[in-house]
Design a protein that fits this description.
The chain is an all-alpha fold. Helix content is 81%, strand content 2%. It has a single domain, classed as A middle domain of Talin 1 (Up-down Bundle). The protein contains 14 helices and four strands. The strands form two sheets. Strands 1-4 form a two-stranded antiparallel sheet. The chain has a two-stranded antiparallel sheet with strand order 2-3. The longest helix is centred in the middle third of the chain and has 33 residues, at 180-212. The protein is globular.
């Protein structure tokens, strides 16, 4: 119980440190004259995924890559099958045309790349499963592509993410009052907090895994991944309460894409990420859910994720939990 409380405290520290880093980064960006749309798309848009990055960098440098991949898969499936479903139960989510054409297919491509890159044994007849340095470079290339068109969307004020971008711009406008010294102090504290938080999360997760006999990747799938996804859950519930449902799809898909195209890429560059049979089942589950979302949205008359689809996603999350626990 004691280590569970330590783990919870470490996750809260990492989440709060990410906010400090974003606040300081926004202020510094203003002082340097960086355009608002770049700040909104990059600094704030991906800020909530910083805890996952901190955990993975620490896990990779410590050689605990099972925890690292479990963290990402657990976070993405929590975002997709729990957060998205919970919000859709509260209010149906309309999905704009650009999201249907760009974001959902890109999200499926990200899941497909994890499945393909991590299954050399089946596809290339090589006697191992792992995501390697070359895969990390490819994933980073896709991150650059996604970042490019995201920045263009913000600059053009694209309708399907208008509310999300407006929200980012409000945050940008609120934070520019910081002095350079205060902004640097916030960024420094944020980075220190992320480093310490990431280290404590990995340390406590491994202690819990040893104490209860769970594998590293299960700790990542069931505890660390969902825990580091709390910022996305809170942001989406607030947006649903305010009826700003256009923000929700952008938040969730943007966070998931950052996790795969950037965080997993950085992890693989630091150390190869093995994909054992148990994690492979979860990757397949993630791939199927990502694929399932596309026809759900396109076949809906109003192009919405409604309550029936939300229940299906929640059932998928229950199946995922069963797979993770019994692997």
């Amino acid at each position: 119980m004691q280590h569970c409380l330590y783990l919870l405290g470490a996750i809260l520290l990492a989440v709060y440190a990410a906010k400090l880093l974003v606040d300081g980064g926004v202020a510094i960006s203003h002082r340097l004259g960086i355009p608002q749309f770049i700040i909104g798309a990059v600094v704030i848009g991906f800020g909530s995924s910083m805890p996952e990055l901190a955990v993975n960098v620490k896990a990779a440098t410590a050689g605990e890559t099972g925890l690292a991949l479990g963290n990402l898969l657990g976070s993405n499936l929590f975002n997709l099958c729990f957060t998205l479903a919970l919000v859709a139960l509260i209010t149906p989510l309309a999905v704009g045309r650009d999201s249907r054409v760009k974001d959902l297919p890109m999200h499926f491509i990200a899941a497909l790349m994890v499945a393909v890159c991590g299954n050399q044994l089946y596809l290339d007849h090589i006697n191992y499963h792992q995501i390697m340095l070359s895969h990390g470079i490819i994933l980073l290339s896709f991150f650059g592509i996604y970042l490019y068109y995201t920045a263009l969307e913000v600059a053009d004020n694209s309708p399907h993410k208008k509310l999300l971008h407006q929200s980012h711009h409000k945050l940008v406008e609120q934070e520019h009052v910081f002095s350079v010294s205060k902004a640097c102090a916030l960024m420094t504290l944020g980075l220190i907090g992320l480093v310490i938080g990431g280290e404590l999360i990995v340390e406590q997760a491994l202690i819990i895994a040893n104490n209860v006999g769970m594998s590293e990747h299960n700790i990542g799938l069931l505890i660390v991944g969902p825990g580091t996804s709390v910022p996305e859950l809170v942001a989406c519930l607030i947006a649903a309460h305010k009826r700003n449902t256009d923000m929700i799809i952008g938040n969730i898909l943007g966070s998931n894409l950052f996790n795969i195209f950037f965080t997993l890429a950085v992890t693989a560059i630091i150390a190869p990420v093995p994909l054992d049979l148990a994690l492979n089942k979860v990757v397949l589950m993630y791939l199927l859910v990502s694929l399932l979302l596309i026809p759900i949205v396109w076949c809906s008359k109003e192009k919405k994720i409604g309550r029936p689809a939300a229940l299906l996603l929640l059932c998928s999350y229950g199946l995922y939990l069963w797979i993770a626990v019994n692997s």
